[in-house]
Amino acid sequence: METQNKNNDMLKRRFKHLLKNTFILTVIVTVILSLIPGKAILAEQQNASTEGKELIDNGDIEKGKEPWINYRNATVDVSNKESSSGTNSLLVTNRQSTVDGPQQYITGEVMAGGTYKFSARIKYTEGPDQKDFNFNIQNGPSWQNIDVMTTATINRGEWGTIEGTYTIPEDADLTETFIFLETSYANPADPENDLIDFYVDDVSFLDITSNPNLLENSDFENGLDPWTNYGEASVRITNQESSSGSNSLIVTDRVLTTNGPKQDITGKIEKGTTYNFSAKIKYTEGPDQKVFNYNIQNGPSWQNIDVMKSKAINKGEWGTIEGTYKVPEDADLSETFIFIETSFANPADPENDLIDFYIDDVSFGKELRGAPPVKNPEEIYEGTEAVAKTPGNANPLISHKFGADPNAMVYGDRVYIYLTNDQYEFDENGHVKNNTYSNINTITVISSEDMVNWTDHGAIPVAGSKGAAKWASQSWAVAVGHKEINGKDKFFLYFSNNGSGIGVLTADSPIGPWVDPIGKPLIDRNTPGTEGVVWTFDPDVLIDEDGEGYLYFGGGLPGSDSDRTQEQSEHPKTARVIKLGDDMVSTEGEAKLIDAPFMFESNGIHKNNGKYYYSYSTNFTGMRDEDDPKTGEIAYMMSDSPMGPFTYIDSVLKNPGEFFGVGGNNHQDFFKFQDQWYITYHAQTLGKALDTVQGYRSPHINKVEFNEDGTMKDIQADLKGVPQLASLNPYERTEAETFAWNAGITTETSEAPGSMIESLNLHVTGINNGNWFAVSQADFGKNGTTTFEANIASTVGGTIDIRVDSKDGPIIGTLEVSPTGGEQEWNLMKTSVTNLTGVHDLYFVFSGESEENLINIDYWKFTEVQGGLDGEDGQDGEDGQDGEDGQDGEDGQDGEDGQDGENGQGGEDGQEREDNQDGEVGQKGENSKGEGANVDRQNSGTTIDRNQSNNYQLPETATSLFNILLVGTLLLISGCTVLFVVKRRNLGNERKA
Questions:
Q1: Three-class SS of residue 24?
Q2: Domain CBM6: where (predicted)?
Q3: Over 929-967, what HEC string results?
Q4: Average pLDDT of 485-491?
Q5: Which of 176, 306, 405, 858 is catalytic?
Q6: Average pLDDT in the 963-990 region?
Q7: Active-site residue (options: 456, 601, 825, 936)
Q8: Is 979 helix (H, G, I), strand (E, B) or coil?
Q9: Using one digit for the tens of pLDDT, what is the confidence trace for 926-959?
Q10: What is d(CA 902, CA 915) in angstroms, rounded to the nearest whole number?
Q11: 405 in catalytic set
Q12: Is 601 an annotated catalytic residue?
C-alpha cells in the first residue's frame, strides 16, 4: 500500500511538472508570435503563393487545347497518357523541323524592360538518351527576333524542367509576341534524334517586373516620412485599417475637401512621359458612397493642379483609384507633388464632405512601353460623312460595322437580325486583306421595331475559348427561332462550325446570355442521312404552328473543279432537312434529301398560306438553260410538307451585282413582320463605299410580294430599302447604339447598367470631332420638349449639338460634356432645348479639340412639356421655358443648373465650379478657376506635424499580443484537459496493476 502511494505521489509530481513546462512554453510561443504582425504573416503567405502575374493561359493543359497552337508544322494535341501534374499534357508530333513545337501568344501582355520568370516541364519517350530543349520567345513578326531564353538537357523517359528569367529588350518590337518550345537546332534534322515527339506540361511565364514606383514608403510600413498633409489636415500612421501589410495612413481633422495626404516628387518626373498611378482608399463614417480625387500639381500655383482620376468609393470597403497620366509638354516641374482629396463641396458638410479616410498602397510610376495599339477591325470608318447607308435610305441596315448571312426572327414588336460577324483582317503592313472567314467566332445581333432605326446588341461569343461552344472553332451563318417549352419562351441559335457541323445554343431572351446545352455538334457528317453532303452548314429553322421543329442545312459541290460533271453541278444533292426533337436540341430520324437545282449554299425556309418555301443560293458552275437559275442567285422551291418533296419554282432575287454593281455570293432569309413579307440578304455595298470589296458583307431588307398562285414576284433590291413602320418616341430611354445613320462612330460593350439583359449593354464610342449619329422620324408630339439628358462617360470632354432634319440643320440644344474621370465613369448630364414639336430626324453632332475619343454615350432621353404652353407647365410654368426647369428657371439658362446657374457659366459656381470643363474632374482640378479656389488651394504648402496628436491608440503589438494570448490561453486549456484525461487514465491503469 505504501509503495502504491509513493507511485501515485510521483505521478502527480510528474503531471504538475508537465503542466508547468507546457504553460511556460505556451507563454513563450505566444509572446514571440505576438511580436510578429498577423497581417504581415498573411501578406507573406500571399506573396509566397503569388510571385507575379501569370501570362500563360491553360499552362497545365487541364482545360483542353485552347489557346495552344502549333509553331510551324507540328501537330499539337492534348494527351492523357503522360502528365507532370493533373491529368493532361500537350503531345507534339509530326514535326518537320527542330523549331516545330507548341506555341502561345502573349501579345499585349509584356512590356519593354519588363522581367519575366518562365518554366515548363518536358518529357520524351523515344530517341536519344538525352536531348536539349529550348524555351523561346519571339518579339515581332520576324523570326529574326527570336530569343532562346534558356536551354535545358532532358533525360529520355523522365520529366525534366526548363526554366529561367528573361528581360524584354527596351527596343523590342511588341506588335506580336509569343513563346514556343523546340528541340536544339539541327539542319538537316535526323527524324529519330532531332524530330522526336515530346510532351509539355505546367508551362508558366510570370511577370515579376519590379514596380517602377516613384513614391517612397507607399505602403506606410516605415512610418510617416516623407508623407505630409496638404492644407489643414492631420495625417498619421495607423494599424486599425490596412489594405496590405500592417499599416495605412489615416487623414483626419479636415477643414476643406481639398485637405489630404501629399508627397513631393519634384525632379522625379519628365515632360511628355506617361505614368501609371493607383491608391487604395477606405472610409468608415459618412455617406454610403463618396468620390475621391487623385491629383497632381505641377508648379507652385494651385492653378496647375490636374485631377488625374476620380472614383466613387463605397463606405466600409477598400476601393481602388487608378489610371494613367501624361505630363504636359509645357508643365512647370519646378515643384511637383501628388495628393488625394474628396470631391469639391463649398460649404462642406462635416459629416458628408470632411470625412476621415485611410489610404494605402499608393503608387506613381513610369508606364513601361507595351504593345502598340492595334487596329480595331470594328472601326471601319473615321470620316464625318455617311457612307453606304445615307440619310433617307434604309439599306444597308447598318454602316458602322459589317454583317453577313442575315437571319431574321420576329419576337414581340421587334425583328431581330443575326449576322455572321464579318470584321476587317489586316496584313503585316496594316492593309485590309481578303476576308478569310477563319477568325469569325462571334455573331452580331441587331434589332428594330421600325425597320430603319436599328439597335446594335453587340456580338454573341459563340465559338472558341471565349465562346459558349468551346468545342467549335468558327461560327458562321446562324438560324434563330423561339418556342414555348414548359410554359416559358426559349430561344435556339443554330450555327455553322465552318463547314464541318452545326451546333446549337439556347437562351431565355433574343439576345442571350447563350449557353451550349449539349456540348457537341447537333449535326455533323455522322448524322444519319448526311452522306454526300459536302458542307454541313448554313442552317435555317422552321417551327411550325403545331410546335414541331425542322432544320434545313447543307451545301457544297461534289467532285473537283477540274472533273465535275454537268449532273453534279445541276443536281449536287447536298441539301438536307431533318426533324428536331421536342426539346429543339436533338434530332429525330434521318436527314432527307432536297434535290435543289444548282444548289450551292444558304438554306432558307418560310411558310405562307399553308405552303412551305425552301430557298437557297445557286452555284457558279455548269451550263445553264433558259429556265435555270443564273449564278449566285436566290432560287426557291415549294412543298405541301416541311419534309418535302419540294418542287423547283424559279429564281426570285438576282445576284447583288445586278443591283449594286458589286457581286459575290448571297445569303437570304424570308420573314413576315406586321403583316408584310420581307427578305433580308447581304451585299458588299458598305465594302464598295469604303473601297474594300474583299468579301466583307452588309445586311439589307426589301419587300416580298406574292402572286395569286402563291409564287413569289421578282424582288427588286436597292439602297432605298423599306418604309419606316413607326415613329421613334424621344421621351423614352433610347439606347445610343440605336440609330438610322452615322459617320465615324462605333460601338462597344459598356459597364453602364440598363439594357434588355443585365449582362449586356453597349454604348457609342470612337467619337472624334465632326462625327455624328442620327435617328429617323422622332415624334415630339404637340406639346414639344424642354430638356435633354444623356448618360455620358468621358476622359477629355466635348460638345454635343442636337440638330434636326440634317447634320447641318438647326440646333435645338447643346450639351457641354465635362470629363467624368474615365471612359466607364458615367454621369447623367442635362441641358435645356428649344421647344420642338412634330416628327423630325434627329442628329447628334460631336465636337472637341482632343484627338482621343471625346465621349462615350450610353443612352439619351428628352423631357416632354406637360400641359399647355402658357399653363402651369408651359413657357412661364414650372417646367416651361421660364419655369423651374425652363430657360430661366432652376435648370434653365439662368437657373441653378442652367448656363448661368449653379453649374453653368455665370452662376454660383459657373465656369469656375464642379461640373464645368475646368471643374471637379476637369483638366485643371476641382477648383481650378473657382471662387473658392484661393480658399482651398492657398494653404497647399502648409506642413503640420500631426505626430503630436492627443488621440492615443494601442500599438499593433499590444493588440496582437492580446488576440494571440487569448488564442494561446484557449489552446493551453484544451491541451491541459487532454493531458489530464490521459494521465488520469494512466494512473488508473497503474493502480490496477
A1: helix
A2: 732-863
A3: CCCCHHHHHCCCCCCCCHHHCCCCCCCHHHHHHHHHHHH
A4: 96
A5: 405
A6: 56
A7: 601
A8: helix
A9: 333 333 333 333 333 333 232 333 333 334 334 4
A10: 9
A11: yes
A12: yes
